[in-house]
Structures are given as structure tokens and as C-alpha cells.
């Protein structure tokens, strides 16, 4: 690509940095909390169920409202939604830091998850709207996606440092970062170019049924790791979610201005990107959880040591904005994404024979390969999700992508937890290691399946044609 075609002016670059700051904030917020959970339990005296609920509350809010957030960005304006919900994110993150009871943390994390559900697709729509399709958008999305992935890996280290000062700083630090981003965003996003918003009324019936369906389905997925509990509640959540989803589809086929235009699902790249994102992110969430158990419970490492051990995965923060856009421009999204999935599969395969006496040098290849995998996969997934989709529906496309990621995270954690618990035969370190080895097969299998789904896109040549945003009687 030519240097001129990929060059960004100062205002566009400033806007990109602000939006990257917001998506970095989301990733680091989740990662820091995960590391600080033991400290929170010890200070507030939370039960295991309440502690698990602190994580699940965020997942419920995020997964339950993501598609609504994506459509709201299209209908009400990406800038408006981004600034409003960034402010709410700031407020409730601060309230979480002042929590003295478990229920206060649950409320704070749920609303923070809802705020992230509106922020994330609005931010993606602002990125794609601010940069024209071609080298500039490819470079911008590479930087944006790399920052998002880097936020999670760096958050593990930041969480360990802040938790050593006091777990409340895990909530207060995002408040400071949010305030700085909000001030800068108010100025820079004001003049940014954005696609014309589609006319139409808000689909209230679709909103209620879809949000209810997402909440119940995510709740059902979260409960999968507790199959020794009340199975009726778990199956009831899935049944209710599927019933509401069926009602939602009926409504969307009949309503004049649907919340989710079902015809958008005719985009092959979008569907493959969502499946790939679900499997890729889910596999890493499960792997990260198992590695944390291995290092802290079996090896006795501290939270800070665990975070530092996975710091190398954060090399995607450097590689994604520099190397990935060049590879995408030369080889295309699908080939680069496929390479990232193969890299992740190799990383998980190398970790399968993990032993109690492993040195960090033996773990190092898996960490480096995962950093490479995120560099090659995360950006192209974001690009593929909007490939062939009209700009007026980029918020919706972003909502679909991030919903898939959140479902993937919940599924990945639930699957490895269920396998780990089922395979645990005793309380000895050897028994624990055997259970972890069994559960490590899950992320490997999920990544291989993701590679197979992505490989189907290698059959498609050329650039995807935009999926018309006009009503399609066959699907919408």
C-alpha cells in the first residue's frame, strides 16, 4: 500500500487513540477484577456463590444488552451512545470501589457490563465511520483490535499490582482512566465523520424479547459450570431464552423497523467471523482460567507472578498495529485469521503435557504463540465482522461480534470448569494436574473447530459485496 493512502491526519489519529483508550479500559477492567477476586472475598467475607456472581453479573449485563447496544448506536448515534455510556461506566466503576456488601458489587458490575455493551459497538462504529474503507481503515482496526486484546493481558499484571495496594484500586483506577477518555472524547469525536443513521422507529417488542432471551441464555451458560446444583433452573433458563428468541424472530420478520435486520445474517464473512470469535475467545478464556489454577493452586505462584507469566501474550499490543495490517493488505483477512487460529492451536497443544516441575522456559513457547495468535486473529475478526455490511449497520455488526465474544467467554469458562470438576479424582497435586490436563483439551478442540470454520472462507475470493440494508422479505 502507498504511504499516502494509509496516512492519517492528526485529528483522526487523536480520535483513534481515544477510542483505543476506551476499548483498552474495557479489557483491563475485566482482567484486573479477575486477579483481585481472592482479596475481595477475604475483605468482604463473600461466599463462593456471591464471588462467582460478581463475575457473572458483568457477563449478564454485557451479553444481555450487546445487540441492543449495537442497534442503539445505529439508530441514536454512535457518538451519543459512546459518551453517555462511558459516563455511566465511570460512575458505577467508582461505586464498586466503595462497596461494603456483596449485593453492591453485584449491582455495580451488572450496570458496568451494560455500559460496556453499549460502548463497545458504538466505539467500533466510530472507528469504521472515521476512516475510509481501504488501507486507512485496515490500519485503524489493527491498532484498535490490538489495543483491545492487549488490555486484557496487561490487565492481569496491573490487577496484581493494584490488588497488592488494596482491591478497591481495581475499581478506582478505571475511574481515573475513564474521566480522561471522556474529556478527550467529548472534544475529538464531535467533528468525526459518521455514517448516516437509518430512519425508523425503535422496535420495543423486539428489544424486550431479545434482551430477555440474551439474559436467560447467558445465565444458562454461566450455570453450566454448576451442574451439581439445581438442573431445573439451568434448563429453565435455556428453555425460556430459546422461547423468547423464537418470539423475537417472529417479531423481526413482521415489524417494519426491526431491531436486528435478519437479512444481515446472509453475510458469510460476518457469520464466520462471529463463529470464529466465539471459539477463539472462548478457548483463550478457558485456557487462561486453567493456567491460573495451575500456577496459583498447584505451583503456589502469587497473583502478580501469574500476571507476569502471561505478560508475553501482550506482544499483540505491538504486533497487531504494525505487522497485522501489512499482512491483511497482502494476504487478506481470512488467511491472516486462519494463521492466528493455527498459532493458538499449536500453543494449546504444546501445553497439554504440562507437569508439576515445569520451568517457565518450557511454558514460554505457548505464551509467545498465543501473543502471535492474538496479533493475527483479533484484528482480522473485527475487520471481517463488518466486511460486506453497510456502514449504517456497523453498530449492529459490532454488537453481533461482541455478543459472540461474550458468549464464547462464558462457554469457554463453563466448559473447562465442568471438565475439570468431572475429572478431579482427589485432592492431591497429581489429581489436580490430571484434571487440568483433561480440561486443556477443550480450548484445543475449540480452536481447531474455529480454524475449520475460518478455512471455509478461504474458498471465497474477492471482496465481499455489501449486504443491502433494505428489508428482505425472505429473511427480514
Compile the SSE list and pairings.
Blueprint (H helix, E strand, L loop, with lengths): L2 H4 L3 H35 L3 H29 L1 H20 L4 H29 L4 H31 L3 H20 L15 H20 L7 H24 L13 H31 L4 H7 L6 H7 L1 H8 L1 H19 L8 H26 L8 H30 L5 H11 L1 H15 L21
Q: Give the number of DSSP strands.
A: 0
Secondary structure: helix percent: over 70%
Note the overall shape.
globular
Query: What's the helix-strand series?
Result: HHHHHHHHHHHHHHHHHH
Indicate the radius of gyration in whole angstroms: 21 Å
Q: Could you tell me the mean pLDDT?
A: 82
**DSSP summary: helix tally:** 18
Secondary-structure content class: mainly alpha
Largest sheet: none
What percent strand?
under 5%
Q: List segments where confidence is low: pLDDT < 50 over at least 5 consecutive residues.
A: 1-6, 191-197, 461-476
Ends: how far apart? 38 Å
What does this structure look like?
The protein is mostly helical and 476 residues long. It has 18 helices and no strands. α6 crosses α15 (360-385), α10 runs antiparallel to α15 and α14 runs antiparallel to α15. It is globular and about 60 Å long.
